[in-house]
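Fill in residues.
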């Protein structure tokens, strides 16, 4: 199904994807963080909270790998989150050179509030579409994701960072399965 694409069509699709990304990032994440007057959190810090929320207690190195940032950057990120009381850092009981990082109750609460509000914002936007438009949008987004992932490695990289719990119904898992013959291994 590799049909030739007109360069104009590809540019328009790229521009639409860019606008979609900016709308989601700015309107549905950054504004929520700005509105939460209790804690000042950046989008990258929220990504770290989401990574911990989805993966549980992790090492600083695992957070860095999951967010695709260097170990020193991950260390600074965790330091800032510890100062804000959103994560706790404890010595690993099996290797004292390592630190285990986990969400605090405050960090878990912030993550839950942001996710709930973001879901509500998406729901409000979707409510402006007809049922058929919503269904087509979901089908088309899934088709685009499957088409954009070009290998097992692409799927694994996205899976590691996506911020949603691993499920067999996940479109990224399905794309991986098409390449590898089985689903993404669970951690």
């Amino acid at each position: 199904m590799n049909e030739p694409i007109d360069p104009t069509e590809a540019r328009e699709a790229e521009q639409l994807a860019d606008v979609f990304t900016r709308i989601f990032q700015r309107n549905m994440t950054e504004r929520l963080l700005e509105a939460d007057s209790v804690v000042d959190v950046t989008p990258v810090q929220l990504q770290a909270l989401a990574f911990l929320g989805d993966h549980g207690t992790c090492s600083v190195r695992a957070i860095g790998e999951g967010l695709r940032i260097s170990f020193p950057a991950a260390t600074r990120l965790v330091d800032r989150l510890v100062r804000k009381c959103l994560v706790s850092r404890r010595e690993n009981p099996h290797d004292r050179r390592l630190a285990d990082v986990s969400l605090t109750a405050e960090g878990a609460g912030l993550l839950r509030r942001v996710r709930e509000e973001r879901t509500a914002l998406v729901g409000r936007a979707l409510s402006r579409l007809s049922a058929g438009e919503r269904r087509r949008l979901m089908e088309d987004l899934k088709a685009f994701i499957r088409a954009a992932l070009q290998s097992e490695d692409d799927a694994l990289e996205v899976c590691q960072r996506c911020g949603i719990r691993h499920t067999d119904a996940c479109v990224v898992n399905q794309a991986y399965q098409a390449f590898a013959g089985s689903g993404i291994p669970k951690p």
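Strands lie at 58-59, 87-91, 99-103.
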